[in-house]
TrEMBL record:
Keywords: Cell membrane, Ion transport, Manganese, Membrane, Transmembrane, Transmembrane helix, Transport. The chain crosses the membrane at residues 33-54, 66-84, 104-124, 129-149. This is Manganese efflux pump MntP. Pfam families: Mntp.
Length: 178
C-alpha cells in the first residue's frame, strides 16, 4: 500500500509542476483553471498507468525472469528525466492562452511517463485498478493545489516538485531490485 502512495505522489509531480506554472500566469482567481487542471491531469494520470499495466501483463510471460530489471530501468529513466527537467524551463512557458486543446496536450505530455511506470504495477502485489484510481485522485489534488500555489507564489516551487518526483521514482525502482 505504501508503494501506491509513493508512486501516486511521484507520478503526480509533473502535473503539479505544470499546474504551478499555469497558475502563475493567471491574472484573476484561478478556480476554473484549477478544476480544469485537476480533471485533465487526474484522468490522464489514472488512464496511462492502466494502459502500461495491461501492456506489461501481455509481455510479462516473455520477460518475467528479468522484469524487475526492466521496471528498474524504466523508473530510473523516468526519474532521471524528471530530475533533468527540474533544471530546465517548463513547457508552459510558451503558452499564452489556456484552452481545452492546450490542456489536453499538457495532460498527454505529463502522463506519458505514467504509462511506462504502469508496467511496474505488474511486479507489485497490489490491485492495479486501485493504484490507478489513487494515482488519478492524487494527481487531481496536486494539480488543483498547484494552480493556486502558482497563482500566489509564481513558479518558485515548480522545479522542486519535479525533482522530488524524480527522486521518488528512482527510489521505487531501487526497491524493486531488492
Amino acid at each position: 500500500m505504501i508503494e501506491i502512495l509513493f508512486l501516486s505522489v511521484a507520478l503526480s509531480m509533473d502535473a503539479f509542476a505544470v499546474s504551478i506554472g499555469l497558475g502563475s500566469k493567471q491574472k484573476v482567481k484561478p478556480t476554473t483553471l484549477a478544476l480544469k487542471a485537476g480533471i485533465y491531469f487526474g484522468v490522464f494520470q489514472a488512464l496511462m498507468p492502466l494502459i502500461g499495466y495491461l501492456g506489461g501483463k501481455g509481455v510479462l510471460g516473455w520477460v518475467e525472469g528479468y522484469a524487475h530489471w526492466i521496471a528498474f530501468l524504466l523508473l530510473l529513466l523516468i526519474g532521471g528525466k524528471m530530475i533533468y527537467e527540474s533544471f530546465s524551463e517548463g513547457i508552459e512557458e510558451d503558452i499564452s492562452k489556456i484552452t481545452h486543446k492546450v490542456m489536453l496536450m499538457l495532460a498527454i505530455a505529463t502522463s506519458i511517463d505514467a504509462m511506462a511506470a504502469g508496467f511496474t504495477l505488474t511486479l507489485i502485489d497490489i490491485n492495479p485498478f486501485i493504484a490507478c484510481i489513487a494515482i488519478g485522485l492524487t494527481t487531481f489534488g496536486f494539480s488543483w493545489i498547484g494552480v493556486f500555489i502558482g497563482f500566489k507564489s509564481g513558479t518558485k516551487l515548480e522545479s522542486k516538485a519535479e525533482l522530488l518526483g524524480g527522486v521518488i521514482l528512482i527510489l521505487i525502482g531501487l526497491k524493486l531490485l531488492f
